[in-house]
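Exam revision sheet. Question 4 asks you to relate a sequence to its structure. Input first:
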Amino acid sequence: MRKIEIGEGGDVTAAGATLVEAPSVAEMIVTGHQPQIAGFDEAAQPGFVFNSPEEGRAAEVALDVIRRYERKLGDVQALRNKDVQQQISAEVRELIQPAQAALAGIVEGPRVEAIVNIVATTVADRTISIPQIVVIPKRQVTFRFDDFDLKNLETVNVQPVEDGLIIQSLRTEARTYLAKAVDDPRESRMEDYLVRYLIERNEIDYDAHADLLYKLAGQVVARLRTYLTTDADVESALLRPGRQLAEFAFAQMMQHYKETPMAEDDYEVRITRGFTLLKSQPLNIAPGQKVRDFRQPVTPASETRRQVFGGFKKCCYPLQKFDSDPERRLAVLVDSEPAVEKWMKPGRAQFQIEYRSGEGYEPVFVVETKSRSLILEVKARNQLGDPIVQAKAAAASKWCKTANAHVEAAKTKPWQYALVPDDQIIGASTLDGLLAKFSQ
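Answer key, structure tokens:
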């Protein structure tokens, strides 16, 4: 029987989080939208720059038109070009013309060319050009798992889980008993409880890998039988903690994962966008939570990932979250570097690099300096040799190589990737020093 405490300091908080949309700095300037969260210093942010609702509407239309130019332009800096701005102005004028006609004689029409210039320049100033690169294999990618036996089975010590649980309120100490309402699906073989979770993974093909899957599942079941005395207990241990046990096996499988090597000419590379407008980032905000100054550490450091930070000078977003204190420290370093023009932590689906067939990797930091664009990753020292970390690093390096072929033609800044150990982000660190040691 497991006891769950609900309330402040318990296992489950009594109040849910609120979803807050954090617009990019460019969007704030153009539309006037502000994130609604306590502690956000609106006065310190760039203000709305237009004089009337009509001009504001024209600015939003200009932003929508610019989004269509992601596929037309090689780089966001091309928005500064006067010919490009004239094309955008013509499209904006056409789109707002019906509204202007309806208001003729009542309000003065917006200054379309001037507004487009402001919007285009703001987007160019506040956006990092991340080309969207699509890499398509020209031939079938095949993969396999080498045969092996599970290690460290002695660490498996899961216990049978009862079907009921007690929920106790911290405030009233009242207890509620919950019984399981619906039976979990039963399997005819113990091994199937693990196999059903393993085959959910993209890397696993049941038909090709069934022999290895049942071999490994059998080893886990054999381990459970060394300390559980009945089939009912073994089945119970597989029913609820089964996904955890499957992850234990899968992690070792990935150490024996092999893909057919692909040569450079086995891929077709396409640049589908020269840049992408930054979208609002959704942030989960706990009740009563306020924006924290990113220069101030959180105590304990493990609470860093729960906080929302602001106070940036060069970030493309006014608010950011960090998964760890080393990430926060790297943000402090980057934001204070004279050579850095802008940086950000990309939001979900804003920047993805495929590091394995069907698996996307989202870089932690993207930084633009006066001379180059950077992808920065932070990992604990003991994670640097992890196969997945290494696969992501190799994919990011390859992405930079591909992007550099594009930027050479577009005459823009080259890309560079660095995998930085977290213990190297200290007060005396510099961005150039980290790049010199850890670029790949």
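Marking note for examiners. Residues 1-14, 103-107, 177-182 have pLDDT under 50 and may be disordered.
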